[in-house]
């Protein structure tokens, strides 16, 4: 499971399936230099999106792909 406080790159390394959510919303966070020092919550919110909703979507995808 991922949380808003997790580092973007660490979360993607641990749960590669969540890249689908980034792509769905047009977020280039995974390839961004800032991602190494930014949390999921910070990265998502910086694009004006609802971090809680996207985190929930990521966690649902992780569960479905176990």
Automatic annotation (TrEMBL):
Gene3D superfamilies, sorted: SP0561-like (1.10.3910.10)
Top-level division of the source organism's lineage: Bacteria
All residue ranges annotated as the DUF1858 domain in the record: 3-55
Residues making up the signal peptide according to the UniProt record: none
InterPro entries in the record: CHP03980_redox-disulphide, DUF1858, ScdA-like_N_sf
PANTHER family: BSL7085 PROTEIN, DUF1858 DOMAIN-CONTAINING PROTEIN
Protein name per its UniProtKB record: Disulfide oxidoreductase
Source organism (scientific name): Propionigenium maris DSM 9537
């Amino acid at each position: 499971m991922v949380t808003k406080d997790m580092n973007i790159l660490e979360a993607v390394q641990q749960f590669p399936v969540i890249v689908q959510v980034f792509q769905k919303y047009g977020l280039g966070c995974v390839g961004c230099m800032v991602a190494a020092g930014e949390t999921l919550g910070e990265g998502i919110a910086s694009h004006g999106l609802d971090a809680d909703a996207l985190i929930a979507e990521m966690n649902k995808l992780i569960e479905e792909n176990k």
